Amino acid sequence: MSLSALHNVTSQFQHLLQNVNSEPISYVLISIGIALIIALIAGMSIYGMFKLIRAVPQMTTKQFLVFLIGVAVFILALGVFLP
Questions:
Q1: What is the pTM assigned to this prediction?
Q2: Keyword Membrane: yes or no (predicted)?
Q3: Would you say 32 and 24 are in contact if contact means Cβ atoms under 8 Å apart?
Q4: More confident of the two residues 10 and 72
């Protein structure tokens, strides 16, 4: 195969790809990426909740009270910053 034949074949592929609008493809790829990140965060949150549920019965009273205060502060901060 000569170089001119190779050039002809590759230029045909380039002409095919120039007519394709790549914008919808990029939107799909961005949407898939965001969905994967959300699924990863949700999975890590669920895993952390199960680890927390296992750790709570083994806590001392002082540790449990500190945990409850931390949860209360988090919920309070969330309520202040969301609106």
A1: 0.51
A2: yes
A3: no
A4: 72
